[in-house]
Amino acid sequence: MMETVYLNGEFLSKENAKISPDDRGFIFADGVYEVVKYYNGKPFRYDDHLVRLKHSLSEIAIDYPGLDSLKVIFAELLSKNTLIDKHAGVYLQITRGENKRVHHFPTEVVPTVYAFSFELPSFTEKLKNGIRVITHEDIRWLRCDIKSVSLLANTMLYNKAVEAGAWECVLIRNGVVSEATHSSILGVKNGVVITHPLSNLILPGISRKVVLEICSENNILFEERPILKSEFYDMDEIILAGTGSEITPIIQVDDKIIGNNKPGEITRFVQQKFFEKVNNST
Q1: Where do the CATH 3.20.10.10 domains begin and end in the chain?
Q2: Smallest Cα–Cα separation from 44: which of 89, 10, 81, 82?
Q3: In this predicted model, what pLDDT tens digit does every residue of 19-68 receive, in sequence order?
Q4: What CATH code would you report for 4-119?
């Protein structure tokens, strides 16, 4: 079956989707993106994704007036690619658009809007048994709150995890755990859930937000504060939270076993409540 994508107001086959080599997304990585997960045709936390997208666009001064039409576009993509009855993701990328190569933001340029859908199943085995991660210095820029298409540093760091046979790379900036290459990180110590406070140094993760909501709703103590690398290895539990990761237990960091080498009670409880929210939203 031929894959259908969306590009600048049209649904067309992927092989016929063409973007100019002068597009600033190609030349400068001058653009932002979002990935929304759909469970059997229903989006999870769509409004939160839209709020984050608006923030990213605003921070880099891209004016895109078509935000209200995105939900319909996403649903049509799922339908055209027969993904309505599956767990699927929709990737959206908005760049500043086509223009001659200049370093300032050009005026009167039309944004390039590209979206595609894809199967995004849950990683059932990893959700059940947990994963191993490595750590590395956070080499990314200082505006990690913007969901930028400039992901070279992220991919370099994630590749180190792949080479090490691990599932993710947890990033350390100035001795403090920030996040992973494409997920949020939350630790659990003495029954308290701990995660880096929102700032320019981390992405405002949607799943991170859901975890903290679950904590609030179920009287689980939580703190938004920096986690030192030195204390990270001594966490009782560690959670990887993201659109694709969902709620994945981390049972080993580098060579250090976390907890008793299996998912902990709070992680399991948060997993359960997370999927209850998913089911209630669909």
Answers
A1: 124-281
A2: 89
A3: 999 999 999 999 999 999 999 999 999 999 999 999 999 999 999 999 99
A4: 3.30.470.10
- Residue positions annotated with a catalytic role: 147
- Rounded to whole angstroms, how far apart are CA atoms 223 and 1? 48
| DSSP class per residue in 183-235 | SEEEEEETTEEEEPPSSTTS---HHHHHHHHHHHHTT--EEE--EEHHHHTT-
pLDDT in tens, 168-222: 999 999 999 999 999 999 999 999 999 999 999 999 999 999 999 999 999 999 9
Which residues lie closer than 8 Å to 101 by C-beta, 6 or more apart? 22, 27
Q: In this structure, which CATH number among 3.90.550.10, 3.20.10.10, 1.10.150.20, 3.90.470.10 belongs to the domain 124-281?
A: 3.20.10.10
| Pair of tokens at residue 248 | 């994945």
- Measure the CA–CA gap between 226 and 204, rounded to whole angstroms: 15
Q: How far apart are CA 169 and CA 183, in angstroms?
A: 10
**Which tokens go with 220?**
């689980």
The C-alpha atoms of residue 109 and residue 235 are separated, in whole angstroms, by 49
For the chain, residues classed under CATH 3.30.470.10 are: 4-119
Structure-block tokens of residue 242: 């993201």
Question: What rounded mean pLDDT belongs to the chain?
Answer: 97
Q: Residues 140-176: pLDDT tens digits?
A: 999 999 999 999 999 999 999 999 999 999 999 999 9
CA distance linking residue 157 with residue 76, whole number of Å:
34
